[in-house]
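Example (one chain per record):
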Amino acid sequence: MAVDVLSDLLRTVRLTGAVFFDVAGKEPWVAEQPSRDVILPKILPGAEHLIAYHLVVEGRCYARIVGEGPIALETGEIIVFTHGDPHVMSSAPDMRATGEPAPLGSLPPDQMPYFASYGGEGAQSVRLVCGYLACDARPFNPLLDSLPKVIKVGAPVSRDAGWVGQIIHVAAMESAHKRPGGETVLAKLSELMFVEVVRQYLATLPAEQGGWLAGLRDPFIGKALSLMHGSPAHGWTIEELAREVGQSRSVLAERFTAIVGTPPLHYLAQWRMQLASEMLSRGDANMAAVAAAAGYVAEAAFSRAFKKIMGVPPSVWRQRNQSGV
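Predicted structure:
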């Protein structure tokens, strides 16, 4: 059975949505996010990677990474900062916030989303639903390296049109009413939104584009990835993978390496360690089970391979990640 590689990766790297803001802006207004090193400990303790997003529910505004050019946004559009870079949201291009941002540690402990208002006393010019997602970056998350720092998707549309419109519509409703279970709904919407953003970005990639995402759409590389993700513990060889996808050994190896950026069996070794690290972090499997899931019969061989890639033995990794170090 073919495996949905993107879904498999997102599940394994534990993509989760958390902390949401219902934002109103009155011109002139500006809001600025500091670096992810400041944000992560406040809102997502223990998380490795930060993704920030903003959904324009009503009105229009500008967004930009600090030091880079502005991007115009209108109703029905979503912008995602895939690496959590410091960025500015504002009513006009090239604005910067003054003073220190409000301390995230002072957020009230009531039900999310939190409401935030920026600007003066004039008429509201924009409404945003903003939030964060987190995922594992180590030991292996090829998706992150395949994404640009900023992705904008969704044409200016009514809130009832298309996937993006539906996401914005439901997010706006949940933000406005704060019904029981709203945090869970917003978290799942965030994850769904991110998947849709990635899919739309994938659809726009030029034919010559390389990278992990480009490999997913290649009929031969995509099938090879699906096979390895579907049976990661299997003792795959280049010959067997090539036979399964309908290419010669040399052509598959060259094509996979050129597009994905790493040889097939090296990719498999890294993916196995991602699976193993996720199982170790959960702490609900013994070392023999983790080794078997990673394709190793002997625990000692697994431990050596894990330490070679991760830099520490699996027992140390488990201890560090369960204790939040």
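Caption: Residues 229 and 296 are 16 Å apart (CA to CA).
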